[in-house]
UniProtKB/TrEMBL annotation:
Residues 471-486 have a biased composition (Basic and acidic residues). InterPro entries: Integrase_cat-core, IstA-like_C, RNaseH-like_sf. It comes from Candidatus Thiodictyon syntrophicum. Pfam families: Mu-transpos_C_2. This is Integrase. One of its GO terms (biological process) is DNA integration. Residues 453-501 are annotated as: Disordered. Residues 114-289 form the Integrase catalytic domain. It comes from the Bacteria.
Length: 501
């Protein structure tokens, strides 16, 4: 039920000052008498103290009050079913309307203004700022916000996700920007911070505990349903939305983060400090910074690590994209290590591939050397297949190829030339010609071809006609049945007697 503040003030004045009954107030203001009753009940005036006529609910009021006192959140439909079982004759809608007057009001909770010491605490949270389109990928635009509770110095960093690696990088950026860190970091019940919570029993994320051990701070989650405990970071996120992100244009994520750094160091630092109104945030941070914990000598590792299985193709999948690697590592388990700018593929401790990171979707990031190596291996495999066929048809071809290799000849072109001679002259002739070429000390296909031609001329045979067949063993080995020529004789007309006359 919604009613203006002006009408509420008039109802209360007419009832308490003018002593008007509810009906008179309702008629004068043009309201339903139930609305007037509701305003008076919200003001704390018990309904039974007002003049009223007997109602169907009166005999059931002691039961209703006792039940609501024991179960204050019991829904009206369930309470209606209970009084119906006890003989209440009224309707459900009217009963639900009456329950607004008799349901006990929750006592508003008062909160103390929380104060912290300089260098004592910072609050951390994520803010969602829409989506980010990179190529074919649509990713969430997430803002990591950390604010020092005393000086209200803000660290703002945007990421294309809210994963643990981005969570760690946000911490690292804040600590490096401030040149130190507070003793306590206060978190909402984020998945990156709290894995499980049962009452006061909390199970922190092990990576967050490792980060806390490295920098020696205490991670502390806020109590459940206690947003006031992290009000500083909530207000900081609202300030970022209204004071920085609204109507802002940017080219890419790097440009947005550069503008965010400038805003945190400029406009956000020049605003008044809520803890000390006589100071700006910049001046308060200058007082707080010496009280921060010192940073260790080495930063916490924030690279993403993933064990991945390489398939039949020399690519490994990481974050929606495929990255090439040497073909010698297919069907193996590798480790992908990724920073915001680079993706490395490791086999044990050895780096086998390194690529710039892509935030696209379905892209293939390739190293030309990996593809060239794969093509060379495929060509070498074809050469080996040709040499195996030669060795099966003419075993002494291995000796010829070894002798040619010793002379620095190209084995690929030699193998191809010998295969053509094999297809033209047959295996037995090729075997004999290779033997003759080896005896003459000329391990070259030209010597083999001359020997084959000489042997053909000695047998007075016509030159062979090479068949141009596809390089497919299914076609090469297929048997062809010749057609019967008698069928063609039937096509010619039979000779007449006049032709022999």
């Amino acid at each position: 039920m919604t009613i203006s503040t002006e009408f509420e003030a008039k109802i209360l004045r007419y009832f308490h000052v003018e002593k008007w009954p509810v009906g008179t107030i309702a008629r004068h203001l043009g309201l339903h008498h139930g609305t007037v009753d509701w305003v008076l009940s919200q003001a704390g005036l018990p309904k039974l103290e007002r003049p009223h006529r007997a109602a169907m609910l009166d005999p059931f009021l002691p039961f209703v009050r006792a039940t609501l006192e024991q179960y204050p959140r019991l829904c009206a439909s369930r309470l209606y079913a209970m009084v119906r079982e006890r003989g209440y004759p009224g309707g459900a809608d009217h009963f639900r309307h009456l329950m607004q007057h008799y349901r006990p009001r929750a006592q508003p909770e008062a909160y103390l203004r929380l104060k912290t010491l300089p260098g004592e605490q910072a609050q951390v949270d994520w803010g969602h700022f829409g989506t980010l389109t990179i190529g074919r990928a649509t990713r969430p635009l997430m803002a990591f916000v950390m604010v020092l509770s005393w000086s209200r110095q803000i660290l703002l960093r945007f990421f294309p996700d809210a994963r643990m690696a981005s969570f760690l990088r946000g911490h690292e950026a804040a600590f490096q920007s401030w040149g130190g860190l507070p003793r306590v970091l206060l978190y909402d019940n984020l998945k990156s911070a709290v894995l499980e919570r049962q009452g006061d029993a909390i199970r922190f994320h092990p990576t967050l505990l490792a980060l806390a051990a490295h920098y020696r701070f205490e991670p502390r989650p806020v109590a459940v349903a206690r947003g006031n405990e992290k009000g500083r970071v909530e207000r900081a996120i609202r300030y970022v939305r209204e004071g920085f992100f609204a109507a802002r244009t940017w080219r890419d994520l790097d440009d947005l983060n550069a503008q965010a750094d400038a805003w945190c160091a400029g406009q956000a630092a020049d605003r008044p400090c809520p803890e000390e109104r006589t100071l700006t945030v910049r001046q308060a941070f200058a007082q707080e910074q010496p009280r921060l914990l010192a940073l260790p000598d080495n930063p916490f590792p924030t690279d993403e690590r993933l064990e991945a299985k390489v398939g039949k193709t020399p690519y490994v999948r990481f974050d929606l994209n495929d990255y090439s690697l040497p073909s010698t590592h297919v069907q193996r388990l590798v480790t992908v290590v990724a920073s915001p700018q680079q993706v490395r593929v490791l086999d044990g401790a050895a780096v086998i591939a390194c690529h710039p990171r892509s935030y696209d979707q379905g892209a293939q990031i390739e190293d030309p050397a990996h593809l060239a190596e794969l093509v060379a291996r495929k060509r070498a495999a074809r050469h080996h297949r040709g040499q195996d066929r030669l060795a099966q048809a003419a075993p002494n071809s291995r000796d010829l190829l070894l002798a040619a290799a010793a002379r620095g000849e190209n084995l690929g072109s030699l193998t191809a030339a010998l295969l053509r001679l094999l297809d033209t002259y047959g295996s037995s002739e090729l075997q004999a010609a290779i033997t003759e070429a080896l005896q003459r000390g000329v391990p070259h296909p030209n010597a083999v071809r001359l020997s084959l031609e000489r042997r053909r001329e000695q047998r007075d045979q016509p030159p062979p006609v090479p068949l141009s067949l596809p390089d497919d063993p299914r076609v090469r080995d297929q048997a062809v049945r010749p057609h019967a020529l008698a069928d063609y004789d039937q096509l010619s007309p039979e000779p007449h007697d006049d032709d022999h006359a």
